[in-house]
Write the structure tokens for this entry.
Amino acid sequence: MSLLFRKMILAVLAGAALLLSVLPQPAIAHGERATEPYIRTRTIHWFDVTWSTDKMKVNDTVTVQGKFRLMTDWPDAVSKPDLVFLSNGSPGASLTRVESYINGMPAQQSTKNLEIGRDYDFKLVMKGREPGKWHLHPVMNIYGAGAIVGPGGWVTVTGNAADFKAPVTTMHGTKIDDLQTFGVARVQMWQAGYALIAVAWLLWWLRRPLLISRWRVLEKGREDLLVTRTDDKVAAGLLVLVLLVVIVGYTKIKAEFPQLVPLQGGSLYTPPLQEAPNAVAIKLKRAEYDVPGRSMRLNIEMTNNTDQPLSVGEFTTANLRFINKKLPAAVAAIDPTYPQDLIPGNGLIVDGSAPLAPGETRLVMLEATDAAWELERLVSFLSNVDSRTGGLIFFYDPKGNRYISEVYGAILPVFKKTI
Amino acid sequence: MDGDNHEKVLAMTANDQAVLDVAEMSPKIANWSRTFDILIVIVAAFLIWAVSHIGFLLLGGDWDFFIDWKDRQYWVLITPVVTLMMAAAFQAIFWHLFRLPFGATASVLLFLLGVWIVRYHSWQGLAFFPISLVVPATCLMGALALDAILVLTRSWLVTAVFGGTLFGLMFFPSNWIYLAPYFQPVEHMGQMTSLADLIGYTFPRSGTPEYIRIIERGTLRTFQDSAMWVSAFFAAFLCIFTYMIFWWIGIKACTIKYIAIGSKFKDAYAANVNAGGKAA
């Protein structure tokens, strides 16, 4: 291989590396499958989540809203939701946040003391900024535990990014055209001014004979040649200039903006939604995950505490919704905007079709079979120190009213059906 | 030595010629020395840039990254103290070896240049963050004062006391000149907030919840509107000692230390030379 050819290959590789580092490479996924299954199945269960649209233009908004349940069987290894922040999962600031609420209370800052075993509703209003197809999740950040990601829906933003604007008016009445660019020119102008002074100072010294010559002169004890009286005068002038710029600049800005506020750092409290009566008492008698069959089987003792016959309509865990397709009310409850990849096609198999009569206690077998257990990386409880699982079961009465119960307990990995 | 020749080569002042004379450099050697200067300055610039940048990222990153981290307690305190570390070390190296009083300015200026490149390439280019969210602060005015005081006093101790104080004290006012507008009050969802908070809220960082900000959360309430200056004075106090420590580290980093060798090595060395090998 000739030297020229080798050089050409090296040049091409170097060029490619430079291009890869310079060209923007947006992230698509948000690591929702990377969280441990015991966190995803036993902390927060998101339900009734809807996206107001899946297509919008730059500057249009999409609202993601729904509810979440903080599971009673909260894992010991996960910090309790004493301080949380409702956020969104989307690539960078491709979508901007307009408003966010927990139980109707503003969630711009963190929320404290959420109660385990209770439900909350949430609302996120996001605005299109960068054209593209973006995955948009609700996310609950829990202090000490990290982000617990809700279901993600795809939202397509069309139009021109240059059209995006985020105008705002301050409490003093100053109109700001766009938060994206606000103040940047002022920062750059001042810092460029500072940099000019710094460059002048560097050039004052760099223009002279530098390293070897100065080192040799210093070795010979002639320091007086290296820093002269002229340098002293320049340094004194520089010091005065720096002090003047800072003092005058600070005084002027204080006069221009006399009333400013510090960063806001308080947290809010919001009470949970009203607690629903315990419609169906649940005892998980045995749960197993059939490894080769990719099937979770739950043997549950259910007691109907209502005066209506109730049927099992759905089992949801880790954003997966296993629907009992034999129950029209459960099928009707699926919002068309809910991500289809999170609704396993095999649905939920409930042994026996008879509803649970009022006051009746019965053992019911639920079977949720799908490759989604593997795809969503939910089977690592096989190697967990705490081999438990959890989820929500939705019951429906003949009028279509819904009742929610938690189910949780130990789970066994098996290679052959035992129940 | 021929002063005219030097003048042709470098367009020097009389003082520069005197330096070359004392250094015993012929015009030819002076020319090569200048080429060497240029090469080393370029390489050193990248080195200073990288070290200053990495040092800050490791110890003070978030306060410089985001506008809604620039609070009146930690930002005012941590940023100058951390920035001063590398600035003092490089100032010590250049002063100790060459009596060049620009180490602090070079460190902070190159760091600022690097920060702006990263802001546009990575923060805006890769993550879609607007520049208003990620405007950096700078300690450049403090660095200039630090270098100037070193020239005027020729003393690292006096520079530590007065220069360190100015470095810490000037950080807040020299940056407030252009960052103050970000702290105008604005109403959002029925609450008062600052524009800086609102910018941070509007342009979400998915992995950065609000509570993770290490900002003042009311603990400086006693000082009311003077909280910034309380932090600035404390920063100035800490900068004195930070300067001393990192000046010492800088001096150590550029000091050659000869280690006495033992008799075994001496014997092996002599045997190698006697066998016809070259001394290393």
Remarks:
- Chain A has a mean pLDDT of 92.
- Chain A touches chain B through 107 residues (CB under 8 Å).
